[in-house]
């Protein structure tokens, strides 16, 4: 089952897992140590992240390490770009308005 990448970031625990493995690949046990939850709960989150193709598994001997697929994060960035442009435009308009008001204030 392929999930949408936005399902991956919808949950705060999954966002925290993403932040952890963005720094370095980790085993499920190492990830679980950072949370006040069971190893099984972390495994369910990792399964969703894997189904979203946001993380991949790297088998090293008997250990499985989870790695972040940083290129997959670009999908989120592309979606956010439209809102970034809107806000940058609004901030630009606000800057113009503030500069006009300041100019008018200096004339008085």
From TrEMBL:
InterPro entries: ArsR-like_HTH (IPR011991), HTH_ArsR_DNA-bd_dom (IPR001845), WH-like_DNA-bd_sf (IPR036388), WH_DNA-bd_sf (IPR036390). Pfam families: HTH_20. SUPFAM superfamilies: Winged helix' DNA-binding domain (SSF46785). Residues 1-88 form the HTH arsR-type domain. PANTHER family: TRANSCRIPTIONAL REGULATORY PROTEIN. This is ArsR family transcriptional regulator. It comes from Chryseobacterium candidae.
